[in-house]
Amino acid sequence: xxxxxxxxxxxxxxxxxxxxxxxxxxxxxxxxxxxxxxxxxxxxxxxxxxxxxxxxxxxxxxxxxxxxxxxxxxxxxxxxxxxxxxxxxxxxxxxxxxxxxxxxxxxxxxxxxxxxxxxxxxxxxxxxxxxxxxxxxxxxxxxxxxxxxxxxxxxxxxxxxxxxxxxxxxxxxxxxxxxxxxxxxxxxxxxxxxxxxxxxxxxxxxxxxxxxxxxxxxxxxxxxxxxxxxxxxxxxxxxxxxxxxxxxxxxxxxxxxxx
Length: 259
What we know:
Elements: E1 2-3, E2 6-11, E3 14-19, H1 30-41, E4 51-56, H2 75-94, E5 99-103, E6 106-108, H3 110-116, E7 120-124, E8 128-130, H4 144-152, H5 154-163, E9 167-168, H6 169-175, E10 180-182, H7 187-199, H8 203-216, H9 221-235, H10 239-249
Parallel strand pairs: 3-4, 4-5, 5-7, 6-8, 7-10
Antiparallel strand pairs: 1-2, 2-3, 8-9
Helix pairs in contact: 1-2, 4-5, 8-9
């Protein structure tokens, strides 16, 4: 399956989404954002899809907003465009399937924030990130003002937003914002391997755990404790839990089905 600005491929239990505007370093377009929203809506009810991988075609992951078209849109158009981007970010956080960003080359502006909105980031060792909004007199959009400080703290987040300095992937890895660093020539191979590993795990448990972690930012400890109690009551009835217990007793690796 494909469309002009987004390539969509189902690789067994893994849904691969590839930003496909390589001539503009995969800068966002309305079609791309809409395509991502549509593509992320379908896996919600598709039990065959357990993991989603987001990557970029060509030389880079994504340059974020398309600088070539900036200044052409009026305030109302900008308001509506960012509203669509906001819907995408919220959908990514609400989707009960792990989303992995595979980043190579350059990620800039909202392209960085798109990666941060994923659940895990695997990056090429030589990749670079830049929160370049201030270079064109703008603030962050795409949730960066929320996502980045929670990963690296407010002082460093302000530094990176204010200076727009390119940040080597190695530094973000050391700060805990990137999960894995791999050689660029092995990025696709290692990402696929890791995605398949997750895809053969207890998918429902992953989805509920993701949801609880997201809710923890705006909940009290008491709220999360109660949610854990309620959800665990349901989880002990799942096929994956029963398989996990059986596999433990039989001293073998569990064969989870994500159910």
